[in-house]
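User: Okay, second chain of the day. Same drill as before: sequence in, C-alpha cells out.
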Amino acid sequence: MAKLFLGRHARRRVDRSPVLRRLRWASEAALLAAFWGLSARLSPDHASAAGERLLRWLGPRLQNTRHLRRNLALAFPGRSDAQLDELVREVWAQMGAVLAEYPHLGAICAQDGSNRIETVVRFDRERLRRSHKPAIFVTAHLANWEIAAAAGAGGGFPLTAVYTPIENPWIDRLLYRHRQALGCKLIARQDALRPLMRELAAGRSIGLLVDQRVDSGEPVPFFGIDKLTTVVPARLALRFDCDLIPVRVERLQGARFRVTGYEPVSRGGADLSEHEQVLEMTRQVNALLESWITDAPTQWFCSNRRWPKQAQPSGAALVRPSPAH
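Assistant: Same drill. C-alpha cells below.
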C-alpha cells in the first residue's frame, strides 16, 4: 500500500525508523480495514461499483500510475495520450472493484447456486481426472484473478495457489483471512519451489500468476518485447509429466465472472531439448495472455514494471502523470 501512496525515497526515509515503519503499517492497515468494513455492508455488486468509482478518481493520482501507464504504452503503442489516460482510469477502476470484493469472496465463490462464477472448460476434464495426475494452472492479473483459484478448487481439483505476501504484515494477514474463502491451500511465493514440488508429488494441482516480471526468469516475448518471465510452471509440468493449463478470468457485470480453462499448452516437437520445450510452452502461455489482455485491456492490472527500463514503444508517450488536484 505504501507503494501506492508514497514515493520510493519517502518510503525509505520513513522505514529507516522501526517506529515510523510500524506506524505506517498500522495506518495503512487501518485505512484498508475501514474500506473493507464499509464494502462488507454493501452487496457484492454495489461494493464492486463503489470500489470502481473510488479508484477511477484516486488511482491516476497514485505513485504506481507511472509504471502502469508505461506498461500500457508498451503493450499498446498505437494509443494516443488521451486514450492512454482513459485506459489508466479504467484499469484503476477495475482494481477498485477487486479491492472492494475481498470481503465478498465467500459469497462470490459460494457453491450455493448464486451463479456469480460461470465456468467454461475447454480441456478434457474427465481425462484429467482419470489420469489421477495433478495439473498446473496459470493465469494473469485479469478481472478479479483471485476467482481463478476458487474455480479450480470448486471444479474438483485439490488446489494449492501461490500468493505474493504484502510487505505490510498487518495487511498481509487481512488479505490471507479473506483468501480463506477461496477454498484452496495457499503457499507464499518466496522459496515456493520445493513446497510446490511436494504438492505435485502428493497429487495436488497448483495455481500461479505468471504475467509479472521475474528477475530470475527467462527473456520471452510479451507484446513483442522480451520480458523476464517465470519458466517454473513449464519446468514443473515437464518434470511431473502433467498438463500446463492456462486459465482466463473475465469480469462480466458487477461482481460476476467467467472463468475459462483452456487446452493444455503443447510441449513442442520431440526433437526439442528440455530447455527448448520449456521456452516453447512459456511462449505459448505469453501469447495467450497477450490475446486476453488485447481483448479486454481495462481488466489487466499491471502497476509493477513488466519490461526492462530501456524498452521503448513506438508512438505514445510513456509517462504523463494525472494532475494532483
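Confidence is low (pLDDT under 50) at residues 314-325.

User: Thanks, on to the next one.
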